Amino acid sequence: MQSEGSTDGQSDDRVIVLNPVSGSEDHVDDVVALGTEHGFRIRKTEEGGDANRIARDVAPTADLVAAVGGDGTVNAVVNGLAAADALETTTFAVVPAGTGNNFATNIGVQGIEHAFSVMEEGRRRSIDVGIANDRIFLNSCVGGITAEASSNTTPESKANLGVLAYVKNTLKTMGSFDSLPLRVETEQGPNGERTRAWEGRAMFVLIGNCRRFTGARTAQADVEDGLLEVTIVEDAAALNLLGGAAMQKLFGRDSDHIVRRRTPSLVIESRRDSVEYSLDGEMLETESLTVETNPRTLRTAVGEGYQPDPDDGLL
């Protein structure tokens, strides 16, 4: 018995991978109607692993694969395409139907109906993907964020603070979060920046591909520059007392507690136990993490608001 549903009579070269239980779970009828109207075959997930498997199975014949759900669904579909070696041959699209929808926001996709307009009329861009121990991520790889903190973070907090909401919630719910003894080595960056190593006790390591962790006017990073935005929070004890605005200000400036790097790759070694990392919300636990970019690998449909360099033209 198949573990997903499908509509008959639709083309196999345009496929929607639909997570029916993401977000508020009220998107299914609209997506099925719009998908059918636009000639997509609809494949529904029913259990964990379905999104990855469906994407992997349809990739050989699909020209366009769209992930319907939140960032976790997006991550699973892209990893499925990667497993089929189809990142460069199959166009990827996102229909935001999750809680945070950070990746969709970063590439200028504003809602379900808008997503279908983008798929039909929007530009195609080839963007970087991040790879952490052979697993793909698009938005971010975050160390020190627990699954409990992630699940307890409210949609409103995610909307206001993004991943910083998880940082704040971890500190709030766990009281004294035990810092992580780490060694972080970054490879040569832009402008001839040399290989650099940092070693110490960190509360969080925040690695951005399509997003960054600063107080900049947009959370989107340049996702076509082949570089990762790395932020190490050395000592976050003071953050436990900060509100959202104060935290944003701290992350937006140089600080004794904040270390920043821009690098094509890095290695993180734990000096104690294994560390939990969140790859677009999907968890990975390891003592050693190798992270790198694969530049301009994923062909994706972007909205009119997407700018490769988010700071271009800003004062």
Structure explained in plain terms:
The protein is α+β, with helices and mostly antiparallel strands. The chain has two domains: 111 residues, Rossmann fold (3-Layer(aba) Sandwich), CATH 3.40.50.10330; 155 residues, Sandwich (Tumour Suppressor Smad4). Helix content is 25%, strand content 33%. It is built from nine helices and 16 strands. It has a six-stranded antiparallel beta sheet with strand order 6-5-16-13-8-9. Strands 12-11-10-7-14-15 form a six-stranded antiparallel beta sheet, with no helix packed on it. A four-stranded parallel beta sheet has the order 2-1-3-4, with helices on both faces. α2 packs across α3. The longest helix is centred in the N-terminal third of the chain and has 13 residues. The chain is globular, with a radius of gyration of 19 Å. The termini are far apart.
Q: Helix fraction? A: 25-40%
Structural class: alpha+beta
Report the C-alpha radius of gyration, rounded.
19 Å
- What value does the average pLDDT take? 83
User: What characteristic shape results from the CA principal axes?
Assistant: globular
CATH class of the largest domain: Mainly Beta
Question: What's the helix count?
Answer: 9
Largest sheet: 6 strands, antiparallel
Distance between the termini: 57 Å
Spell out the helices and strands N to C.
EHEHEHEHHEEEHHHEEEEHEEEEE
Number of domains: 2
Uncertain spans, ≥5 residues at pLDDT below 50?
1-9
Proportion in β-strands: 25-35%
Q: Might you state the CATH topology name of the largest domain?
A: Tumour Suppressor Smad4
